[in-house]
Amino acid sequence: MLMSNLLATTLQWLKKECVPCPLCELSPQQKQQILCKDCWQELPWFKDYVTRHELNILAACEYRYPIDQIVQQFKYHDRLHYQSLLSSLLLTLPLPRVQAIVPMPISEKRLIERGYNQSLLLAQSIAKHLNVPVWQPVERLAQHSQKGLSRLERISQIDEQFIVRQPVKERYRRVMIVDDVVTTGSSIHALTHVLQNLGCVHIYPVCIAAVFD
Ligand SMILES: [Zn+2]
């Protein structure tokens, strides 16, 4: 057991020290997570709030190269080694003090297709770092096609996707929503509504990246 721990730690160290930066492919002198220091500094940092549906959402980056590709790889191609990089982007933000972390839920259909909820993985890292629990009181139903719907119809359809998972054992007043990418903010808006109905008073949404038109 001890020996395998030692082996795992050594492998982790080797990976961290010797694997070239995935963005520029140079062997880095200094590293920030898996990136070299230069690539890390040149990320499309944003570290500010975007306002969507009158909600202030804290975003680490703008959704453009290379963050868009990293998120896509993480989300659709099982590149789970990007998890610690993406979590560390969130940890550069001035995160509020909360009692629990709520990952943006995905529908069971998506979960089966993808095998994991990328926001849950990020939420777990953040929760561990902040020493608070992950809380998942809301489930998400599969989305129907939104083709041909008006903006308002789309919003109400998204609202209907989020339902409380019964029974709700724990309740929290101050929570953080963790999402990967924010575009219109409709999902965060809908989730916020359900959380408010569950008694949450302070809800702080944070995301890896925000899409700007
Ligand atoms: Zn690099």
From TrEMBL:
Gene3D superfamilies in UniProt: 3.40.50.2020
Transmembrane regions: none
Signal peptide start and end residues: none
InterPro entries: ComF/GntX_DNA_util-trans, PRTase-like, PRTase_dom
Family: Belongs to the ComF/GntX family.
Name of protein: Putative DNA transformation protein (ComF)
Native source organism of the sequence: Acinetobacter baylyi (strain ATCC 33305 / BD413 / ADP1)
